Amino acid sequence: MLKAGSTIGIVGGGQLGRMLALAAARLGLHCHIYSPEKNSCAFEVAAAATCAPYDDETALARFAAACDVITYEFENVPAKTAAYLARRKPVLPDPRVLEITQDRLIEKNFLTELKIPTAPYASVHSATQLAEGIAKVGLPAVLKTKQLGYDGKGQAKIAKNGDPAAAWRSVRGAPSIVEGFIAFEREVSVIAARSADGKVECFEVTENEHRDHILHTSRVPAKVTPALAADARRIATRIAKAFDYVGVLAVEMFEVRKGRTRTLMVNEIAPRVHNSGHWTIDGATVSQFEQHIRAVAGWPLAKPVRLGKVEMINLIGDEVNDAAQWLTVPGAAVHVYGKGAPSPGRKMGHVTKVISR
Predict the structure, then answer these.
(1) pLDDT tens column, 46-74
(2) All structural domains of the chain
(3) Which residues contact 337 (CB under 8 A, 6 or more apart)?
(4) Positive or negative, the Cα torsion across 339, 15, 118, 172?
(5) 273-288 residue pLDDT tens
(6) Distance of alpha carbon 99 from alpha carbon 79, whole angstroms
(7) 30, 212, 254, 345: which one has the fewest Cβ atoms less than 10 Å from its Cβ?
(8) What is the rounded distance in angstroms from the CA atom of residue 296 to the CA atom of residue 285?
(9) CB of 6 within 8 A of CB of 29?
């Protein structure tokens, strides 16, 4: 268990690292951010910062020496970087989790082994394999690169009468998977925290709305039945335990209706704090960021209590220029990430609205 005044290293300097550092400071812990981006928005709120490439072993060694434990704010940390750091200081969650979640095929196989439902899928390494995969999963379908895809990047939908060859060209022949398209009722997510002693605390199920493949709005409580909400929490807990996870993770799921039956399919696992959990900063007695800091510091987890009906709206691109309009809205809290000039599709901040019970 870390003592107050200890230092937590965070690999990655984006808004998630920024919010982790703010949560740690509230608990009397220091954060040291490591990022190759000189304008990383997490730098300005952290006790220390290292700006260096992820393959700079000299800088990584100095960073590790300055930290008591290390975590990360995004899942695409290079495997070599995580392994190098893990030989010097504890890295939580275990870098082994990254090996699974950085590859969509490995992640899907992991879920299948746990008997957790997903969309039907097939591995694709060539145009021929794509045709074989479509024969297996049917059309419409979605072609996704195995690695480095997010916010709709590295994806191509193939309509019922679409052109698979065009989809294959659009991903530039990168190793991929093809998934059967799921006509879902809604997308939901569960933010779960697991401590080193195996205790798991889940936040309430969140309902998510995307625009142009980017999360726009999250609402809590989600419009799901109590039974389905309990099932969603069970799935997230099962995944956290299977990973022997320490920290916060998010599990994105689809609610699917077949006749009168409603079930859940897992779409994706994010081994980190997550955009759909931002509502917890202002809408719960403990935030996802504080839970993650508690977990990696070896501290007890809190029992989250929602403070009301909550809605989180992302400020994407130029929308951040109108953030001031929210400052006089009762129950609204404005978060601007300090990323500089806005650009299309970039998350620049968010607003949380809390309506009392």
Answers:
(1) 999 999 999 999 999 999 999 999 999 99
(2) 7-91 (3.40.50.20), 120-180 (3.30.1490.20), 186-356 (3.30.470.20)
(3) 14, 15, 18, 41, 347, 348, 349
(4) positive
(5) 999 999 999 999 999 9
(6) 7
(7) 212
(8) 19
(9) yes
